[in-house]
Amino acid sequence: MSQGGRSHGASNAAPPDERSALLPTSEAQHHHSNGATSHHENEGESGRHGFHPATFLKVLWRSSCTASMLVNLLWPVVPVAFVLQLFHGLHLWKFATAYIAVIPSANLLGFAGQEFSRKMPKVAGILIETTFGSVIEIILFIVLICKHTVDSPETNGDEGNLIPIIQAAILGSILTNLLLCLGLCFFFGGLRQATQKFHSVVSEVGTGLLLVAAFGLLIPSAFFSALKGSTVDAPSEIALLHEKFTKAKLQADVLQISQATSIALIVAFALYLWFQARSQHTIFDEVIEQDEHQDADRHHDLAKPKFTMTEALFAIALALVLVTSLLIFLVEKIEHVVESGVPDQFLGLILLPLVEKAAEHLTAIDEAWDGVINVALYHCLGPSIQTALFNGPLVVIVAWAIGKPMDLNFEIFMICLLVLSILVVGNFLRDGESNWLEGALLVIIYAIVAIACWYYPNPDVAISNGAQSSQEIDVALLKDSIRLMQEYLQKAS
Fold this sequence. Notes:
- It is a single chain.
- This protein has 493 residues and is mostly helical.
- It has a two-stranded antiparallel ribbon with strand order 1-2.
- The chain has one domain (53-150, 160-231, 244-458).
- It has 19 helices and two strands.
């Protein structure tokens, strides 16, 4: 039996018709093509059972590709990050070591998730692998929103208020995948092959879903921007308070719209997953069937030792504990990093997405280098879709549950970046092929975005996009009410 990628079927089998199942039958699993001899284990099958420490460390070190193996050289930073937490001060050192330590920990989670997914059926395996790639992002968002506080009257955008950073991280994750990761995939893939062609279903479905997701994310911002000029600081007549559209009323409406929109986007994501899992010739099947025999190092990957199911589950549990702890350490020191001069927008839009997406990016780049451009492309577009349809809305729902005012009212600057990035990427995907020049241009665009974010000023208010905190609004309303009452008494006298 000849296998590659995630294929579980025979190499000489006829192309499946519309009624053929994605999952192989037991007969097909044991079928060998005529004259073909292969001594490799089934993909994802280790040929072992239980937990073997020496073999576990060997498999962990070799990881999924050369780049991921080099990332394992950062493992000594992990204990250093934990030890530094025992000392007072050293805030920037604690942030830096935790930031670096997240990379090998995230790489372990991504690799363990990949090993686990390979033991699953084809479609379920890709869905599981994509989900594991976003676990770190979900943990980061939840840690950030739990850490967010605006209790102090002196709280501003640099102290306690992490909502602008969360909002920037949501869009930053999408931009990092669309510009940096996709650009590097095109660039390194183009160095090995002058032109790489990908299936139209990847670009059409991917960019289409991104546009839908972006539409949902940007509705609250558009609502706020359209109506903020119509608001008043306080009602002109106290008796007509219920008829006046104040800033507080606008912010409350935006928050409710964001919460309702988040529920709708999560429902859309659930429908998307259900469609992909239940359809036979979907994007997953199209990508796998076209790329399974084009992997340049396919036989080398098949010959690698693999985790057992027990080892994969242990690695996942260990990686989750490490990643969660390190992200908590990292978030605890964000205020000190901002105070040292790193802007909120740069931290959220650039730094955080880079570290939480590092492992997934390495996997995608390795796939593009090996000629598996369709799978690499999906590893760029898929996480972006999940961030927009699920991860971002999820943090709004979690914040709603714990009483935090998290909304989807993004800065206008970030909205422009997202829309322009989707348009640029969609234009590059339109012709169905890529080269190293297109990849280099996408990376340059990402560098320009990073430069602009460095100079973008930090928010000076507790709630996003120019709205005031509830305490400031209450004080302003009280002052204006007193002023209006005084003017009314003077006129009456």
